[in-house]
Amino acid sequence: MSDNNKVQDENHSFDTEFLEKLIVGIGEVSKITNIPTRQLRYWEDKKIISSLTEEEGKNRRYNYKNIKKILLIKELLDEGYSLDGAVKKIEKRIQMIESSISKIINKQ
Amino acid sequence: MSDNNKVQDENHSFDTEFLEKLIVGIGEVSKITNIPTRQLRYWEDKKIISSLTEEEGKNRRYNYKNIKKILLIKELLDEGYSLDGAVKKIEKRIQMIESSISKIINKQ
DNA sequence: TCATTTTTTGTAGATTATTTACAATTGCAA
DNA sequence: TTGCAATTGTAAATAATCTACAAAAAATGA
User: Fold this and answer.
1) What is the pLDDT of residues A60-78, one digit of tens each?
2) CA at B102, C1' at D4: how many angstroms apart?
3) Which of B81, B63, B70 is closest to B42 using CA atoms?
């Protein structure tokens, strides 16, 4: 194995660690997804999405899975679904996303 | 191609977009890397690492490349390098990391 | 159309997180 | 031990986010 490939492999294993540990604030999620923070909070109020908030009043934190779901909701809204419609539609795809994340993280 | 594989592919192309857009605050970087915020600011003062701060006084922002470099520095310190030593050692590996990131983002 | 509901958006005042800039402390090598 | 490198502490100011109110806009259905 060449030196170069070795480093690529190190990067790969780091990336899974990276995804595992990744936790992001609402401002960054807003920039990543292009959804206003106000809207993200509203969706959470309506139980459409969730975050990792430790206690009431503390800042919201989002992991990779949270962000994935947000982007999926957004996609469905763009397709014309209502929020409730999106929630109903979403179950199957969420499961696929989760199994995909689990594959990434657990290197299965 | 099965439905399942299709979704996996969608996830993959999303991930590259995700990495491209990913921007993280100092608190999150601290949690991801396990390096105190105080230390991250010190390293930046000493020009060891950099961030995407828009203006003086605004909060620091870090992208994927920034975080990669921080983790690399940490690794070298653990191996016994001094900060200056790490900076000198790092050039070649930074280049490899960058080309690796560029491959991920540009799907080359 | 009109009324109702859903969804987005605005904002004030309080709180949390980060900033800079000072300095103190710790660790290490000559 | 002396000097430099590196980390850590902290106060006061600012930035970002919080909740809780409400208003505006968009979608739905009679």
Assistant:
1) 999 999 999 999 999 999 9
2) 39
3) B70
